Fold:
Amino acid sequence: MAALDTGKLEKRLIDAGLVNIQELLPEVKVALKYSTEDNFFGKDVYGELSRCYMQPEVGEMLKNAYRELKSRHPDLTFLVYDAVRPQSVQQILWDELDKPDSIKPLYVADPQKGSLHNFGVAVDLTLAYAGSGEPLDMGTGYDFFGYAAYPDREEEMLASGKISEEQVANRKILREVMLAAGFSGIGSEWWHFNAYSRKVAGEKFDIVK
Ligand SMILES: C[C@@H](N)C(=O)N[C@H](C)C(=O)O
Ligand SMILES: [Zn+2]
Structure:
């Protein structure tokens, strides 16, 4: 695996016009999972990078989602796990994902086509208590790649007891505030939200290599 020069990476993100979400929204919590070994492949691929960057207009959308969240649940905040992700890291995630090629794109977008994370227009996040920073129970952890994490299968997962009413209610809070701000979700991951379609992202922005 080619090592990523993370000092240079942060400079590249800034030079590309991306913004540090905590500069726009200091109340939001960030824990970049790919900058730790606590992720689905057990390797730190971001090194020293600890700040989370995204396109400025996506940051503004997230601010609106946050405003909506606070109006409904003043005790909660966002905990962001990932936003912009270089295509080289997308390739590592793709190579590390232990699933048949036919279903891999449900969980990790094909790096050759480009993930919306590679354009800085996708955000992976959960809800946390603003005071303690403790994440809410969503029924699965981040990057759990299976039906229990599928928004598309919540009714079935509820009926079979794989997830609880409370966990679904927590996901709904997240989903509702993100959708209210113009994001869209995907069927296989409760934590992933896109600001734009792949077509629009490709027209507006460059991929971060
Ligand atoms: C890997 C996961 N956190 C994720 O972001 N998946 C989507 C589908 C992606 O890679 O774009
Ligand atoms: Zn994602």
Remarks:
- The beta strands are 19-20, 29-30, 53-54, 76-82, 122-129, 184-186, 189-194.
- The pocket of zinc ion (ligand 2) is lined by residues 117, 122, 124, 192 (CB under 6 Å).
